[in-house]
Amino acid sequence: MKTAYLVASGDLRLSANQVCWPAQAAMEQILTRALKAEGWAVRRAHPFDKVKQHGFIDSQRMGIEVFRDIPPAAPLIVAEAVWQYSHHLLAGLTTHRGPILTVANWSGQWPGLVGMLNLNGSLTKAGVRYSTLWSEEFTDDFFRTKLRQWLKSGRITHDTSHVRPLDEVKVPATARKLGEKLAAQLVREKAILGVFDEGCMGMFNAIIPDHALHACGVFKERLSQSALYAETMRTTDAEADAVRAWLEKRGMKFHTGPRHERDLTGDQIRLQCKMYVAAVRIADDFGCDAIGIQYQQGLKDLLPASDLVEGTLNNSDRPPVRSRDGKRVLFKGEPVIHFNEVDECAGLDGLLTNRVHRALGQPVENTLHDVRWGAEFGGEYVWVFLISGAAPPAHFIGGWKGAEGFRQPAMYFPNGGSTLRGISKPGEIVWSRIYVEGEALHMDIGRGGVVTLPREETERRWQGTTPQWPIMHAVTYGVSRDQLMAKHQANHIQVAYAHDARAADACLFAKASFARALGMKVNVCGSVGR
Known about the structure:
single chain; alpha/beta; Rossmann fold; L-fucose Isomerase, Chain A, domain 3; 6-stranded antiparallel barrel; 5-stranded parallel sheet; 15 helices; globular
C-alpha cells in the first residue's frame, strides 16, 4: 500500500491538549479508514505521549524534530480536530517538498475547522503549496472524490466561482469616490495600531509585514503586555467598581459563584474592569487608533481573560474612562477599536470599517468572529460565527440587556474572567477578511445577513461549541459552505451591520474601493443581495 504521513498540531497548554485528545484520536481513526479504503496506509509521524497523555505536536521545537524524520517528498496529511498553534508545524511545512493536505472534521466542538483555517492562512502567507479538505463523516461523495484527486495528483481543486476581482465588478461612482477619499486621508494623516505582543497562539497569518502595512499609512506601536499588567494593577478598586456598576445598570448580568477555580468571581470581574480602564489609557497614551490584546499567552497566568474588556472596548456605548488626572473622558462616545488575539489583519479591517461606516452614517461597531461551524436550517446554510472576545453588545439582541457574563473555561484560563455573551440581532451585514499573500495585502469581501433561529436551535449550537461565548447566526449571500471553506484565508471573519440592505451594499462597495485605493487586491465574493 502507498503511505501518507500524518501529523497533528495541538495547543501549547497541556490541559487543552489532554481534554481535546479523544476527539482528535477519533477523527484520525475515521480518516485512516477512509484512506485504507482507497488503498493507502497512514503512518503517524509522532507517537502518543504516555506522560503528557496526548498525541499532539505541542511546540515549535517538537515540530522541527518531528519533521526531521519525515521523508521530504512523502505525501503529508495535517489532521485537525482541535484548535492548534500553526507555528508548531510551519517550520517543517515550509521545506516539505511532497504534497500537503490539511484536513478537518466538520465539528464545532474544539474546533478543528478554526485550527485548519488558521493553518491554511499561515501557509498561504508563507508561500507553501497545499490542498485542503473537510468532512463530517469522511464517507460522503464530496470528501471521497476530493481525497482521490489528492491521492492521484497531489492537488485538490475546489469551486471558487463565487469570487470576482473588484476590477470586474461595477462599482457605484459615489462609493468609489468615498473609498478613494478615505484612502488618501489615511495615507496622508496615518494611523497607529497598538499591538500588545505579536504572534498570539501561533497565528502567523495574523501578522502583517511592516512594509505592507506602511503602504496603507498604518504603523504599529509595539506594546508589551507587561505594561498592560502594570497599568491594570495601578488602577484603583473604585474605578473598577464604577465600571462594573455602569455595566450592571445598563442591564448586563454576571453569573458568579464562590470558587475561583470553577466559578466567575467578583475579584475576577474587578480585575477585568481594571484592565479595561488600563487599556483605554494606554491607547490614549500612545495615540492609538486601534489596539490588540494578545488574549491568551502570558497574561493568562497573571490576570483573568480579556473577553469582557475587548467587547466593551468595541462598543460606542461603554463605561467612561477618564485620563489619570480626571480632566478628560477618553475616546468619548466612540469605540476603542480592538482586534482580538492581536490579529493585525482584523485590526486594519476594523479601522477601515469604522471609517467607512462613520462616513455613511452606519453603525461603526464591528468585530471578528471565528468561522466556527454551521448547519442547514430552514432551507439555507446558517453559519455559527463565534468568538470569545471582541463582540460588542451593540450587535446583540437587546444590547447590554442581552449581554451575559460566564466564567471562561478553566482548561484555557486558570484565572477565569467573564465572557461577554449575547445572541447577534437579525440584520444585514458586510463580511470581509484581509490576508497576506505574496508579501502583499488582499481582501475578500461579501454580503450577508444575520438570522433569528429558535432558542432551542441556538442552544443546540451553543452546546456543540462553547456556550459561554457570543454567537452570530450568519448567512453568506451567494457563498456556499464549501466555497467559503475553499477560499477563506483565516480562522477569523470580520463583520459589521448596516441599517438595511441598500446601506450594506454601499458600505461594501466603499470599503472595497478604500482597500483597492490602498493597494490591496480585492475580491467580491458571492452576491450582493440575498
